[in-house]
Amino acid sequence: MTEQSEAGGQATEGAARALRALIPAERVLTRGPGYTAAVSLWNAAVGHRPVVVVRCADVADVQAGVRVAREFGLPLSVRGGGHDWAGRALRDGGLTLDLSGMREVGIDPDRRHAVVGGGATAGDVLAAAEPFGLVAATGTIGSVGIVGLTLGGGYGPLAGRAGLAVDNLIGAQVVLADGSVVEADAEREPDLFWALRGGGGNFGVVVSARIRLHAVPSVVTGLVLYPWTQAERVFDGLREVLPAAPDELTVQSAVGAGPDGEPAVMILPTWSGAAGAGDGPLRALSRLGTPSAVRLDTGPLAPAIAARDAMFPSGRHVAMGTRSVRELRPEVVAALVQYGAALPSPLSALSLHHFHGAAARIPVSGTAFASRDPHLMIELIAVRPDAADGEAHRRWVESASEALAPHALPGGYPNLLGPDDTTQIAHAYGPNAARLLKIKTTVDPDAVFSAIPLPTED
Q: Model's pTM, two decimal places?
C-alpha cells in the first residue's frame, strides 16, 4: 500500500467513525446494499464512487456530514433526486450527502405554498398539491428531484403561465460550508437567495425549499405525432405558431422514435388556461401537417407528468448536450432533421423546450438564471440500454451540438451543461456571472460545494 492510499484509507475510517459518533450508525454507509443503492444514479454510465455516504434524515445529519467532510479533507457532494446526467451527485473518494430520504412535502393551500424536503421529486410535489387544485412549476418528468431542477432553472409545461421552476422559489433553508444553517429569501440572505435561483447547489446544501403553487386544477395535454416525411413542414409551421402562443400554452416538441421505431416529430402541448379557450391554439398544432396520431386529454397535471416517467427509467447509459435558439430558422430545422434521421438509438431524442410568456418577463438581473429572451432550449439526449457503443452516442451529441452552435444563443442551459462544455459555461450566466462569482467567493470561499458548472474568473 502506498503512503497516499494508506492516508486515504485512514481518512475514510476516521470520517466514518466521526460520523457514527454524531448520527445513528446505520445512516453512515461505506459498503453493502444501502451503499450500492445510494450510488446508483439515473445515468448508469456514471462510475464515480464516494468512500462514505450519509443517508440524511434531517438537517442535523447534513450539518454533521458537511463538518466531517471538511475535517477529513474529503470532497463533498450532494444527492437529491439523482437525475443529473453528469453524475455530480457523487465524487470519487468523497463524502456524499444522500438527501433522497428527505422527501416530505407540506402544502399551505391558503398561501399557495409548498415546503419540500431536499430529496423530494417533482412527482411528490404535484401529487401532494393535486387534492387542493394546485400545481407547481416543474419539469416534464416526475422522478426528477425538484430542488436540483429548481436551483438550475427548470423548464416545464407551465413555463408560459407560471415561469420556470426557479422563478417560483420563495425561500430555502441552507446548510453552509461551515455547517451553520440559514434561511434565504428576498429579505434574509438576499444575495444568497439570488444566487440560488439559477446558480445551482454551488453555495450550500438546500435541505428544504419553499415554492409557489398555482391554481390549475386541470390541463389539456398529450401528443400530436407526425411522420418523419413531414418533419420540415411541421417545424416550419411551429416557427409561425410559437411566437403567437398565449401564456397558457407551452409547447414541447421533439424528434424521437415513433411506434414503428422510425424517427417521428412529436408535439407535446400543455394548455393551462380556461376550459375550451385553448381549442383554437391546440387545433393549430394538429394542422401543421397530417398527423398520424392525436391524443389530447383533459385532467390534472400530476398523472400526466407521472406517466412520462416510464420513458426515462433509471439504469440506462446517457450522454447529453444542450443548445438554445431564438427560433426555428431554416438552418436550425436542417440540423434537427439531419441528426433526427441519425438517432443513435430508438431511446435517443432531440427535445425542444418552449421558453416564453411569464418566464420571459423576469428581468435578466432578477435571478442568477439569465436567459430571459424567448427561445427554444434543445436537449440532445443519447440513450443506450448498456455500456455498448458509448463513443458513438457521445459523438452524435457532440456533432449535433456543433451543427447547432452557429445558430445558437451564447451559453446554454446550466442544468444540462457538462464539465467539458467550457465555451458554453463561460457564457451561461451572461451579465450575471460577475455577481454570481462574487457571492460564491463570499459564501463558500474554500469551494466546498461543486454542482452545476459556474464560469471562472477572467
A: 0.95
